């Protein structure tokens, strides 16, 4: 018998100032990119006033978490200087910290993590899985929720012929390894969520295999955060349609992800996804009661 047994599966997800029961309806995370070059909505919400208006719209549509991103991670994107990322995201966090829903920061830079937490962020969403020097130390204390994502290589090279022997096993093992590092640093299990990293160093077939076998990815019952909204895999399925014409496919993908255990779905189209998940949840439980939370 192991002398260091694993902790029991969490019953809730601690997301900064907010606590979510893992038995509830899946959460919808709305994307708020304050970037000029994101693949689907670059430039649409850059600037504090535009970002605030979009956040208010998503809240009215029923969003559960708002994910603020200051640096594009689309394939081939260049790294953004630290000061420029801070200038983009911190005013938005400060303006929205009392909006009534958790604020997530999409960043891999430890300096941004620290500053965002100080400004009121509730979740750190890291495409690098807290592998950057100083990242684990930046988030180890406190109650901020963490999202550990898998990515092969980096945004500049990740889509250059990604190769796996067993994509599901490799992603699962990577996530489990990063969870072990965070736990060793003193991070409570209830603060950790996992993201398979759909589209980050994967072909469309890799992504579909991961989605089909998604229940294998949840280490020790930790919640899964899934982002498939408008991504190129959906475009490939639809014969090459551009991102703005992938809304219905994105909603279908969100429901597929929820059916396979996702607790958080990260989306561009909040209202439509909230509605779809309410219907799915009601059918699953054979009752209208509980569809809203």
Automatic annotation (TrEMBL):
Pfam families, sorted: Pterin_bind
InterPro entries linked: DHP_synth-like (IPR045031), DHP_synth_dom (IPR006390), Dihydropteroate_synth-like_sf (IPR011005), Pterin-binding_dom (IPR000489)
Keyword set includes Metal-binding: yes
UniProt keyword terms in alphabetical order: Folate biosynthesis, Magnesium, Metal-binding, Transferase
Pathway given in the UniProt record: Cofactor biosynthesis; tetrahydrofolate biosynthesis; 7,8-dihydrofolate from 2-amino-4-hydroxy-6-hydroxymethyl-7,8-dihydropteridine diphosphate and 4-aminobenzoate: step 1/2
Organism domain of life: Bacteria
Needed co-factor(s): Mg(2+)
Catalytic activity: (7,8-dihydropterin-6-yl)methyl diphosphate + 4-aminobenzoate = 7,8-dihydropteroate + diphosphate
Keyword Amino-acid biosynthesis: no
EC number(s) from the headed UniProt entry: 2.5.1.15
Segments forming a coiled coil: none
Domain Pterin-binding: 26-278
UniProt family annotation: Belongs to the DHPS family.
Annotated function: Catalyzes the condensation of para-aminobenzoate (pABA) with 6-hydroxymethyl-7,8-dihydropterin diphosphate (DHPt-PP) to form 7,8-dihydropteroate (H2Pte), the immediate precursor of folate derivatives.
NCBIfam families: DHPS (TIGR01496)
Protein's name in the database: Dihydropteroate synthase
Organism per entry: Cupriavidus malaysiensis
């Amino acid at each position: 018998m192991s002398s260091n047994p694993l902790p029991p599966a969490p019953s809730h997800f601690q997301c900064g100032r907010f606590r979510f029961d893992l038995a509830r309806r899946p959460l919808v995370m709305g994307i708020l990119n304050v970037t000029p070059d994101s693949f689907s909505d670059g430039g649409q919400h850059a600037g504090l006033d535009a970002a605030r208006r979009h956040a208010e719209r998503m809240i009215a549509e029923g969003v559960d978490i708002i994910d603020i991103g200051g640096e594009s991670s689309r394939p081939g994107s260049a790294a953004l200087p630290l000061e420029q990322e801070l200038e983009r995201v911190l005013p938005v966090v400060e303006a929205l910290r009392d909006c009534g829903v958790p604020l997530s920061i999409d960043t891999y830079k430890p300096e941004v993590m620290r500053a965002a937490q100080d400004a009121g962020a509730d979740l750190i969403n890291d495409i690098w899985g807290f592998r950057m020097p100083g990242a684990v130390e930046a988030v180890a204390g406190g109650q901020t929720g963490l999202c550990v994502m898998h990515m092969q290589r980096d945004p500049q090279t990740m889509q250059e012929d990604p190769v796996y022997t067993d994509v599901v096993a490799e992603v699962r093992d990577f996530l489990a390894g990063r969870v072990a590092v965070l736990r060793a640093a003193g991070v409570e299990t209830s603060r950790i969520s996992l993201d398979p990293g759909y589209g980050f160093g994967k072909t469309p077939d890799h992504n579909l295999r991961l989605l089909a076998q998604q229940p294998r990815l949840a280490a020790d019952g930790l919640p899964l955060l899934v982002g498939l909204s408008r991504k190129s895999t959906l475009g490939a399925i639809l014969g090459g349609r551009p991102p703005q014409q992938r809304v219905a496919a994105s909603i279908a993908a969100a429901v597929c992800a929820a059916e396979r255990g996702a607790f958080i779905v990260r989306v561009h189209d909040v209202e439509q996804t909230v509605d779809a998940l309410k219907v799915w949840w009601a059918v699953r439980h054979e009752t209208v009661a509980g569809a809203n939370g």
